Structures are given as C-alpha cells and as structure tokens.
C-alpha cells in the first residue's frame, strides 16, 4: 500500500481484519498487486491449493484427490480483491466491495452437468453463512471451459475447468470472516473439505 498515513482509517481496519483471518494450511495465500482503476483503495490476494508430492490415502483428502498425486499438482487457484471507496458506490450499495475468482479442473465427463454452476454458487452462499459473514448485493457467474487438444497435442485428454467469478458487499470493515469463507471455498473447489451438511462437493477431475 505504500504510505499508510494517507489511507482512510476504515480501510486500515479492513486490512487488519484480513491479517487476522485463519485460513486452512493447505492454502498458499499471498498479496499481489491490486487493481488501480476499480476503486481509490484496494488490496488483492492470490490463493493456490497445490499438492507438492505424493499423499497417503488415509482420509486426509476426500474424493478423487485422495489418490496418490503427482508432484506440484495444482488443485485450485483464486483471487480475492477488497475494494474501498470513501465516497461510497450506488452500484456496490456501500463503501466496500469484495471481488473474487476461483478456478479448478474437473473430470471431463462432468462438462455437460447442468448443476455445476448451481453447486458452485450454492457453496458461496453457504460458506458466507457458515462463517457468519454478513453481506448484500451479491452476484456472480459460473463458467465451464472445455479444453481440447489437436495435432501434436492430440494425445492429451480433454479437460474441463469450472470458474466462479463473484462479488458482494460486506457489511462493514470487519472482513475477516469473508476471507475465511472464501479460502474455504477455494479448498472446496480443490476437493479438500469436509463440507457442511447438505452441501454437495464439486466433482474433481480424475488424476492418473
């Protein structure tokens, strides 16, 4: 952020709340350059869930990722951006806005499953509720991306990615629970949770 003496106290409070967030140890979280055109003040975090080596199938991981994985296997990636405008925004319905992105690769045969987007969005809503993160004006899109290989790459298997882009307005500067909820979402996309009761996991791609 540079010279913090020019930063509004409310945004400093929000930055402190982010630092207090308790995220899962499987999540690699780091600050990255924030966008400069979306709001006068912003902070951006990048998250990755990466398997760094073979893992035992002892229940630590759930679902298909419980198999032995190759080294440096990326399971999911995401971005968490907190925007702040001291003047407020009619579009945001507040002074703060959280903008997020999560992407993970799934099994190719799940590409035609019309429920994928609904599952992804439902997990966002349930994660925020589970962490007691109060918000308003939520919106987002879930996208399935099919990657097919040809020519010299024709031997590669088709791949299906699921992307969730979502934003919402937190109820004030205490955004700790919002980052914790979002970090759990990234792990859910990676296939790592246990999940709350009644929440369906996103089907992971098969890892050979």
TrEMBL record:
InterPro entries per record: DUF3000 (IPR021555)
Entry-linked Pfam families: DUF3000
Protein name per UniProt: DUF3000 domain-containing protein
Organism: Arthrobacter gallicola
């Amino acid at each position: 952020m540079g010279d913090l003496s020019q930063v509004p106290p409310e945004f400093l409070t929000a930055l402190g709340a982010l630092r207090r967030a308790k995220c899962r140890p499987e999540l690699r979280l780091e600050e990255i350059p924030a966008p400069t055109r979306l709001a006068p003040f912003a902070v951006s975090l990048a998250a990755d869930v990466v398997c760094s080596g073979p893992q035992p199938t002892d229940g630590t991981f759930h679902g298909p990722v419980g198999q032995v994985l190759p080294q440096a296997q990326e399971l999911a990636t995401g971005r968490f951006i907190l925007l702040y405008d001291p003047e407020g925004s009619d579009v945001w319905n507040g002074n703060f806005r959280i903008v997020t992105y999560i992407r993970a690769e799934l099994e190719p045969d799940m590409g035609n499953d019309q429920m994928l987007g609904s599952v992804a969005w439902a997990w966002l809503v349930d994660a925020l509720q589970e962490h007691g993160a109060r918000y308003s004006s939520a919106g987002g899109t879930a996208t399935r991306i099919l990657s097919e290989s040809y020519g010299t790459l024709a031997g590669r298997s088709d791949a299906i990615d699921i992307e969730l882009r979502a934003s919402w307005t937190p109820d004030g500067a205490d955004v700790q629970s919002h980052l914790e909820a979002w970090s759990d979402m990234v792990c859910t996309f990676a296939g790592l949770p246990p999940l709350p009761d009644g929440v369906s996991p996103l089907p992971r791609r098969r890892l050979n």
